[in-house]
Amino acid sequence: MKLTIDVEHRDGRARTGTVHTARGAFRTPLFMPVATRGSIRALMTHELTGLAAADGTRAEVLLANTYHLMLRPGAEVVAELGGLAAFSGWDGLTLTDSGGYQVFSLGPKLHDGGAEFRSTYDGSTHLLTPEGAVATQELLGADIQMVLDVCAALPSSRAALRDALETTASWAARARAAHRRTGDQALFGIVQGGTETDLRAESAQRTVELDFDGYAVGGLSVGETREEMLPALDAALEHLPVDQPRYLMGVGDPLSIVEAVARGVDMFDCVLPTRLARHGTLLTDAGRLNIKRAEFARSEDPIDPNCPCPTCATYSRGYLRHLTAVGEPAAASLCTVHNLTWMLGLVARIRAAIAAGRLDGLRAEVAGVWSGSGPGLG
After folding, report:
1. How far is the C-alpha of 292 from the C-alpha of 26, rounded, in Å?
2. Are 110 and 128 in contact, with CB atoms under 8 Å apart?
3. Are 79 and 139 in contact (CB under 8 A)?
4. DSSP calls for 175-189
5. Rounded-to-integer distance, Cα 6 and Cα 189, Å
6. Contact present, 300 and 271 (Cβ < 8 Å)
7. Model pTM score
8. Is CATH 3.20.20.105 what the domain over 5-277+338-369 is classified as, yes or no?
9. Hey, which residues are catalytic here?
C-alpha cells in the first residue's frame, strides 16, 4: 500500500502533512515511541494513550522490534492474539523494524541467504532472510514494516559501506517481491551508505527504483557526529520522492530532529528519551536535567513548569529524586511519562513553526540549548 503525504504547510524543504494508511492516518512531522517487545519500558500502554502535549498532540504510531518479538513470544502467537496493536492494547498505528539493527549488533554470519545469528535469550541459532523478515512482520500485522538491511557500524571503511549497500539493495528487491499484504500493510525501503554522500545518493536511487510504499534513511546516529550525519542525510533525501513519507531511523536528539525536518524528513523514532528517563535524566526546555543531583533533594518545583504531563502536574523534583535514589520502579515510569510528553511537545512546536514560516527561529532556539549533544542525545 503506497503511502503519500498530503502536505499542509511548507517552510523551505520542511513540511507538515498527513499520511493515510489502511487503518488510519498520522500527522507529520512525527515522533514514534519505541515499544521494543510490544511495550514501552516502565510504561503501560494505556498511560501512553493518555499522554498529550499542550496543543493536544499525542503519540500516533508505536514502533516495535521484530527481532525480539519473533523470538519471544513468536510472531505466530502475536498473530493469533490479533496482531501487534491488539496484542499490546494499543489503538493507534504500528510500525515494526526488520530486526536487522539488533541482528547486526550480534555479529552475525552473512551469506547469500541472509544473516545467521544466535538468540540473546537462549543461544539458539536462527537465520533471518529478507523474505523471512517480511513474512514475520506480516504475521505481526503492523501498519508499516521495514525491509531487512545491513547497517554498517561507523566509522567503517568505504569497502565495508559498499558491501553493505550492495547487500541492502539485493535484499530490498527480494523483500519487495516477497511482500503479500500489499492491501493493508506498507513496506518501506531503507537507504544505507554510511557518511559517504555518493554512496547515499546511489543507495537512495536504487531503493526508489524498487517503488516502495515509503522510504527510510538508516545507518545514521550510530557513532558519527551531527556534522557528518547531515550531509549524508541531504544526499539521500535529494533522491527520495517528495510525495511520500521519509523516515530517519533511530534519531532522537532535539537538534538533529529539527535539522532533519528542515531538510524534509517526516518521521523519527528513538529509544533514548525513555532510556534516559529510566536513569533519571529528563528533557526540559533548558536542556537535560539529572534528577539524581543532591541540589534537588528539597526542591518543591516540578521538572518543568510549562510541561502538561501528569508527572509535572503532581510531583516535585524532591520527590522524584527520592524515588530515583532508592530505586523505586515508579521513578522510571514517572520520568518516562515526562520525557515522552516533552518529545510530543517538541514535535508540536516544530509543526507550529513550519505553519507560521518560523522554523529557522526554532532551529536557532533549539541549537542554543542542544548543540552540545550529538545524534541520539549522546
Report:
1. 36
2. no
3. yes
4. HHHH---TTT-EEEE
5. 20
6. no
7. 0.96
8. yes
9. 97, 269
